[in-house]
């Protein structure tokens, strides 16, 4: 009975132990199973790598660049670039402009446009084609540009050597009279018979101002010398320019100067064994050492600055009249025939002008010997821009 009792108790104990072991197994193993389930979403985090959104942002500047159009600029020339003078220098500056700004601009030009109603047609045509900026490079285009500018207020118009402006029309020129004065010093010191010839285009303030400055330079170093002028009434006519120079040489002048657009007066002087002063460009490089020097233009200085402002949206109407200090006008290199003492005299006068002692400061007399600008006084820009009288030492008149 006792044995049976203990056997029963033993069986119950073993069963209890087995039941306890079975009960613990699921409690121990379940937590890891739950942890594995919790870790799985972490593996899915690559889906958060949505920086693919950055791609459109990178493409945006490219789209802007591709859609940006160049500033379209047109130039209207009075003569051909092959004149080796006025238009040659404007064309040289246009090419420098293209080199400076590259694909940001698109330029074109039309040559030999007459200073009449046809110039308005040319400007209007460029405006209707959608050009953004139009440069007209001669005085006679002024009224026609003002007319067209009023029709196209959104386009920038720039007129060379004139005085009319509008909100969308500016003027530009340079104080070429300053290097002309210096060239006059060269001629005044190198003439052998005190007779100098001057081939002038039109008797308008621009040309009269240059003739007067040249004559003042001549007489600043040689009060006995005189300057005879012949008017051609044309800017560009090689035949007429040569004929005018020959007429002056026939009168006995030994140096020819000019306000014309070609090298024909210089060639005529060289053929007679005489000397000359060029204009617009360094004409010595085309004719030879008989061209002592040349008052010349550097239009790229202005064009690059002005177009840069237009590209930046900073262009405003203005009246620009640049000087030797700006670099828009200067004197060309001297011929080997120019003595050092002459070069030194020119250098001293140039320094004086740049220091503020300009050309048209008194005393200055007119042709009749009457005092027009008193000592200690200087002509202002308005008086110089309206020059309608000739200084003492000029032989000729403002007539035809």
Compact overview of the structure:
By secondary structure, this protein is α/β, with parallel strands linked by helices.
Model description:
- By secondary structure, the chain is of the alpha/beta class.
- The chain folds into two domains: 69-174 and 300-322, Rossmann fold; 177-294 and 332-395, Rossmann fold.
- It contains 13 helices and 15 strands.
- The protein has helices at 2-43, 54-67, 86-101, 117-128, 142-151, 177-190, 205-221, 238-250, 264-271, 284-287, 300-311, 340-354, 381-385, and strands spanning 71-76, 105-110, 133-136, 156-160, 169-174, 195-200, 226-231, 255-259, 275-276, 295-297, 319-322, 329-331, 364-365, 371-373, 394-395.
- A six-stranded parallel β-sheet has the order 2-1-3-4-5-11, sandwiched between helices. The protein has a five-stranded parallel β-sheet with strand order 9-8-6-7-15, with helices on both faces.
- Helix 7 links the parallel strand 6 (195-200) and strand 7.
- The longest helix has 42 residues, at 2-43.
- The chain is globular.
The fraction of residues in strands falls at 15-25%
Question: Distance between termini?
Answer: 164 Å
Please summarize the sheet with the most strands.
6 strands, parallel
Reported by name, the CATH topology of the largest domain is: Rossmann fold
Strand order of the largest sheet: 2-1-3-4-5-11
Radius of gyration from CA coordinates: 41 Å
Uncertain spans: 1-67
Structural domain count: 2
CATH architecture of the largest domain: 3-Layer(aba) Sandwich
- Specify the overall morphology: globular
- Counted by DSSP, the helix tally is 13
What is the highest CATH level, the class of the largest domain? Alpha Beta
Mean pLDDT over the residues: 88
The name of the CATH superfamily of the largest domain reads: Response regulator
């Amino acid at each position: 009975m006792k044995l049976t009792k203990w056997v029963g108790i033993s069986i119950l104990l073993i069963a209890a132990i087995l039941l306890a072991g079975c009960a613990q197994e699921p409690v121990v193993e379940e937590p890891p199973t739950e942890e594995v389930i919790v870790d799985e979403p972490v593996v899915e985090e690559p889906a958060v790598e949505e920086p693919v959104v950055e791609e459109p942002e990178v493409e945006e500047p490219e789209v802007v660049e591709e859609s940006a159009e160049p500033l379209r600029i047109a130039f209207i020339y009075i003569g051909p670039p092959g004149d080796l003078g006025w238009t040659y220098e404007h064309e040289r500056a246009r090419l420098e402009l293209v080199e400076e700004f590259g694909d940001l601009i698109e330029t074109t030009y039309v040559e030999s446009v007459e200073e009449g109603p046809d110039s308005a047609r040319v400007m209007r045509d460029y405006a209707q084609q959608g050009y953004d900026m139009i440069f007209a490079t001669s005085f006679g285009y002024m009224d026609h540009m003002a007319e067209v500018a009023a029709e196209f207020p959104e386009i920038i118009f720039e007129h060379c050597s004139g005085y009319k402006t509008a909100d969308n029309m500016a003027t530009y020129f340079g104080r070429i009279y300053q290097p002309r004065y210096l060239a006059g010093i060269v001629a005044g010191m190198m003439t052998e018979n005190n007779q100098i010839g001057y081939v002038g285009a039109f008797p308008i303030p621009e040309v009269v101002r240059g003739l007067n400055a040249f004559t003042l330079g001549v007489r600043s170093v040689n009060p006995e010398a005189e300057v005879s002028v012949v008017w051609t009434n044309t800017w560009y006519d090689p035949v007429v320019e040569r004929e005018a120079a020959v007429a002056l040489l026939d009168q006995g002048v030994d140096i020819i100067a000019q306000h014309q657009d070609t090298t024909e007066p210089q060639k005529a002087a060289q053929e007679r064994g005489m000397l000359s002063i060029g204009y617009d460009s360094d004409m010595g490089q085309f004719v030879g050492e008989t061209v002592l020097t040349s008052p010349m233009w550097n239009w790229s200085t202005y064009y690059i600055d002005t177009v840069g402002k237009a590209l930046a949206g900073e262009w405003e109407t203005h009246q620009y009249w640049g000087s030797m200090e700006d670099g828009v006008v200067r004197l060309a290199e001297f011929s080997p025939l120019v003595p050092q003492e002459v070069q030194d005299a020119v250098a001293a006068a140039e320094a004086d002008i740049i220091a503020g002692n300009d050309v048209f400061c008194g005393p200055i007399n007119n042709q009749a010997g009457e005092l027009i600008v008193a000592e200690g006084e200087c002509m202002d820009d308005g008086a110089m821009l309206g020059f309608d009288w000739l200084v003492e030492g000029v032989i000729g008149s403002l007539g035809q």
